[in-house]
Input
Amino acid sequence: MIQLSRWKVTLVTLVTLIGLLFAAPNLLSPAQREALPGWVPANTLNLGLDLQGGSYLLLQVDVDALRAERIGNMTEDVRLTLREAGVPFSDLRRLPDGVSVTIPEPANYDTAFEALGRLAQPQAGSMQADMQVQRSGGNQLRLTYTPQALNAMGATAVDQAIEVVRRRIDSLGTREPAITRQGQNRIVVQAPGESDPAELERVIGQTAVLTFQMLDEENSIAEAMQGRVPPDAVLLPTDDPREPYLLVKRRVLVSGDNLTRASVGSDQFQRPAIDFRFDGVGARRFGDVTSQNIGRRFAIILDGRVISAPVIQSAITGGSGQITGNFSIASASELVNLLEGGALPAPLNVEERRTVGASLGADAVAAGTTATLVGFVLVVVFMVLSYGLIFGGISVLAMLLNGLLIVGAMSAIQATLTLPGIAGLILTLAMAVDANVLIFERMREEARLGKSAIMSADAGFSRAMSTILDANITTLGAALILFFFGAGPVRGFAWTLSIGVVTSVFTAVFITQIGVALWFRITRSKTLPIA
Output
């Protein structure tokens, strides 16, 4: 086993050069990294919130508001469906899990049941219906969500909110944000380098629900202002001082979910505007609505506020349009980013916010660097005193290359280094030396049995290898469990530990072995210096 195999030397040389190539950008200034050729890696270690400073937000997805909104939409669907079916109804009420409606004429009861049953049919691509129609006493019908659908709303909303938040933070240029789920309906956002959590909260907390709805021009806004709002309409504020409020039909004709593109443009007066394009479904709906309502006004609503209410001059069948209003370049760009990132499925409530200052992060980096250096010096002293300059020096060289490979690997995959990650780095360096201790002690035992130096060294590597692999595989398994089931600092620790386990086995198996074999080839020694 103590042989200078050509493939081992080639492998070690190649891996070391690749590790050096990926680790070297951490020693360069930003200007020097920008000047590197395109084929040279330029990524550096990403520092976590605790090392770089930044903003921390703990958000709660308002699942109750989402369910209330869905039930509100169901109420309008029931109202419209029964009207289209020609069924008179009364006492349309919201329930915690759906709606109930009274059919005064018993002769219309079955017709109403069949009409609502069509609403409850499974959607395209779904095997199971989310809603169910039930008959109840007093000529009442109930259209309700199934318990499974109500529970799924919360889980799906959190997953969707995480993706929307991630896209919005990416649009800010924040590097390597950490966005993780906590519990059933909470989201933790860590944005290194973002010193203003209020600005971060404003960008990611806006729901950005864009809808297109017809104005209610048959009823009086003055009566609605006095509280007499029709059941199928809602009174909404506007951005126009000439019309502070507008009466809008509740029925959503087209929503932001149908948008495929949004960009900043300009209107006929060269003022900032927002150009948009719908997908195929949205384009057909928009074309139908505009062709059937020429001469009437429709409202463009963002998060419950009317931002524009133009008159439909002609049918718009091309699937594209423009939103005009009192926009500045900055506000239009921000709205485009929100629309491109998608709407939040439910409101986000901020439960905790805090800022980690850059100076505090710098102190953590300095403390981590000091701890790493102290640990390195202590390990060097121990190895040299225990195994001499030759074998102790070989183990120290392997430990240095191990650290180089860890930094190179984390830079290559853009893993985030946190303060617990530095602890994992120090632990990994100690584990790498531990493998060398097992090998060297096994060599000593073989030498005491009277074996030659070369035979003792060979037995030390071959017989200690199973112990090294068992210990490191167990540690790797524990690190992977921490990574997949942990969050925040725990995952940072697991990241470094997992990478370090792999690199420490490599350095113990190959680098230390090649170093010992090279020493034997040069010195032709008949005795072990550590015996």
Notes: The longest helix spans residues 358-412.
